[in-house]
Amino acid sequence: MEKLKKIPFSETKEMKSLLEVKDFSLSFPQYKKGFRESYIEVIKDFELTIHPGEIVAVVGSSGSGKSLLADSLLGILPENAEIKGKIYFEGVALTAKRQQQIRGKEISLIPQSVMALDPLMKTGQQVQSSIQNKKEKKRIQKEAFQKLGLPKDTHKKYPFELSGGMARRVLIATAMVSEAKLIIADEPTPGLDEQALEETLTHIKQLSENDRGMMFITHDIHAALKIADRIAVFYGGETVEIANNEDFLGKGENLRHPYTKALWRALPENDFKALKGNQPEAGEVFPGCVFEPRCPIATDFCKKNKPKSAMVNNGIVRCFYAES
Ligand SMILES: Nc1ncnc2c1ncn2[C@@H]1O[C@H](COP(=O)(O)OP(=O)(O)OP(=O)(O)O)[C@@H](O)[C@H]1O
Ligand code: NI
Known about the structure:
Rossmann fold, eight-stranded mixed β-sheet, about 25% helix, globular, ATP binding, translocase, ATP-binding, transport
């Protein structure tokens, strides 16, 4: 395996970004008796930058809008979704037209569900259809299957003949053989035991070779920390913190947001202490900070005012009391 190029975050700021998302919001209109009542805002003021060769994890609990974020970047949202904000790919605005042109080519998605495989097509043929070099497609597909440890005859099989783990590897192969510069992996490690998790993460990490950028969507901070350079923490539809992997070392004292600190404490290798209460429901509106109802350090000020994101210690945080 080729050695991966690691880029410390502090050095990446001057670099050209691969993906830049700014002030991004996504909402759904809500109808009552045929009249539009209001909007449910699922993603609020989201921001994230991914550089070439970087793995950035987006960590958030179930229903927090992670898959919708992936679908927004690919331009495959449900019709009723309304979006605001700016998305740049290689410094150029990512319009709906451009999304359509580069989807599956320059930006590739590993979908959350293995049901995304075509049930009527053999897996070898499916993966070959994402290969741009048509002359070499058989060889490239074979190499990818080998790299991912898939049995020799897998290419002849239909999706229903595969185990869940094998089907997931076929999905990973599709991204691997593409010439995509950005890969978005939506929850590629659901409920795996530790050994299967390690294997899958090794494969995912292989995908970031050759300066590819990667968005690794997961609810599992433990998995994120194993391969991601940076971690964007999603809470109530907002990015409350974007931390560097090494900020999770030690006692988590370098983490900036009380929610990220709580995630750190809930890790099995730490105190394993879960935070009381639940994430807000999609559409719940807060005049102040989204985390205030569960925050151990919240004040009256946090109830009434919304923290803007700020750069603290080489990371980004939305908290009035983040220490620098
Ligand atoms: N077409 C739609 N109309 C209205 N609400 C929707 C629509 N699609 C998704 N939602 C809502 O948006 C929220 C976010 O969904 P999303 O699938 O992005 O979450 P997620 O973070 O990927 O969850 P999981 O970890 O379970 O995959 C959910 O509450 C969902 O019910
Ligand atoms: Ni999802």
